[in-house]
Amino acid sequence: MTFADLGLSPELLKAVDDAGYTEPTAIQAEAIPAVLMMKDLIGIAQTGTGKTASFVLPMIDVMAAGRRRALMPRSLILEPTRELAAQVAENFEKYGKNHDLKMALLIGGVQMGDQLKALDEGVDVLIATPGRLMDLFERGKILLSGCELLVIDEADRMLDMGFIPDIEFICDKLPETRQTMLFSATMPPPIEKLAKKFLSNPKRIETTRAASTNKDITAFKVPVKARQKRDTLKWLLQNDQVETAIIFANRKTTVRDLNKQLQRDGFRSGEIHGDMDQSSRLKELDRFKSGDVNILVASDVAARGLDIKGVSHVFNFDTPWHPDDYVHRIGRTGRAGAKGRAFTFVADEDAEAIANVEKLTGNKIAVFGKDDVRVELADPSAKASEDEQSDGKKPRNRRKERPDDAEGEAKEKTKKGRSQRKPKPDEATQRNAQSKSRSRRRDEDDEPTAPGEWNGPKPGFLDIGFG
Ligand code: AMP
């Protein structure tokens, strides 16, 4: 299946090609033809599935015909947060570069002057957060009666944030004859109700790739004592081949403290949470996207849905209180086919939350165990025997031995090591035979370890929860 099969215009196909996409994702393949046929749509999909392009691309072609009028946007996209709105706007610019369409972004926390000016001149696509839109509507600065197309994105998050009454108000102000699309990662009853009320005979598309079962994400839970979370995080940041990481915490104060601590420890980290003003949030995000910092400590509200390329790791410093957030958090990695690792710290106080996560996803998350560690751990018995040798040299820390230029190879080895893990019995026998005739890796020499059981050498603080 190619984008050309979906009925998009040549101008769009060129923009898609320039974006480097060769094949539509599952949701795009289903949604694009339906939207082009002016059907209403319910998309049950998370970010990371290509859902933004699944509505932005056909919208551009649908909007290509028709005229702009002052104060009357022709289409409206509602987003729960400013960051998501800004991200969808970026998508519009990227895919709509060969079209003459005007777009305006209405979000809180930024100067209103330019937004009002754009509205005055007439816009084809208005991307807004409900709060700012309501504000302008109530002040008579915007008319919604010319809006033929509505997208409600991240509806379940809108629900969490208390936006449903605003959305109902806005829907009531739109013309009855219009096309409506609703996207949501989950469909709790209030969202079903909203869909029933405001969509007519919608096509329902559900993407199979839930973040919890995304094969590109390797997820672990790490049992720890609350007071050991920081050390555990630090150890993993240093030893799990972290390229870029987002660390989620449940409280804003934890986000702030953790970031300070990481900076003190010499990490390049930044923070993003709901208490920051818009420009600082965007600035911090830009620092992360540009690689100025490679670690972002974040709260859920600020980070939901962010599309940042190449995030290698997600850490849940706390298990999220809402199980849906777990799915969203770990979905920040393993995006668009890239591999990612997600670690969730589970202290006593997180026990109930993790049980809820596992209930929601229908999946027991693997306990991070010895076989999952990416570096070789210093072996006390080896150390002792090296000490006994009388060459007078200090015993070396084995995990620091890897030369920098061997990193790629080391990763390859680790990957192989990991893909060989938990072999089926016949494979295990075969491997044992093979391992006799070649240089043996330390982890292959060991007895199999039950998940969560840690019977080898380990950094001291990892004793807890693995012992
Ligand atoms: P989304 O689910 O909309 O947040 O998109 C996730 C990521 O996938 C974004 O970085 C998109 O640029 C990218 N993407 C969207 N569609 C495709 C596609 N057909 N092929 C490759 N990447 C895509």
Q: What does this entry look like structurally?
A:
- The protein is an alpha/beta fold and 467 residues long.
- It folds into two domains: 3-206, Rossmann fold; 217-367, 3-Layer(aba) Sandwich (Rossmann fold).
- It contains 19 helices and 14 strands.
- A seven-stranded parallel β-sheet has the order 3-4-2-5-6-1-7, with helices on both faces. Strands 10-11-9-12-13-8-14 form a seven-stranded parallel β-sheet, sandwiched between helices.
- It starts with 9 loop residues before the first helix and ends in a 22-residue tail after the last helix.
- Adenosine monophosphate binds next to helix 3.
Summarize the structure.
GO terms for molecular function: helicase activity. With 467 residues, the chain is α/β, with parallel strands linked by helices. The protein is 41% helix and 13% strand.
Task: From the structure above, extract its key features.
single chain, 467 residues, alpha/beta, Rossmann fold, 2 domains, seven-stranded parallel sheet, disordered C terminus, binds adenosine monophosphate
Topology:
Layout: H1 10-18, H2 26-36, E1 41-44, H3 51-64, E2 75-78, H4 82-95, E3 103-106, H5 113-121, E4 125-128, H6 130-138, E5 149-152, H7 155-160, H8 164-173, E6 179-184, H9 189-198, E7 203-206, E8 217-223, H10 229-239, E9 245-248, H11 252-264, E10 269-272, H12 278-290, E11 295-298, H13 300-303, E12 313-316, H14 323-330, E13 340-346, H15 351-361, E14 366-367, H16 380-388, H17 407-419, H18 425-436, H19 442-445
Parallel strand pairs: 1-6, 1-7, 2-4, 2-5, 3-4, 5-6, 8-13, 8-14, 9-11, 9-12, 10-11, 12-13
Helix pairs in contact: 2-3, 3-4, 14-15
This protein binds adenosine monophosphate.
Adenosine monophosphate binds next to helix 3.
Keywords: ATP-binding, Helicase, Hydrolase, Nucleotide-binding
InterPro entries: DEAD/DEAH_box_helicase_dom, DEAD/DEAH_RhlB, DEAD_box_RNA_helicase, Helicase_ATP-bd, Helicase_C-like, P-loop_NTPase, RNA-helicase_DEAD-box_CS, RNA_helicase_DEAD_Q_motif
Pfam families: DEAD, Helicase_C
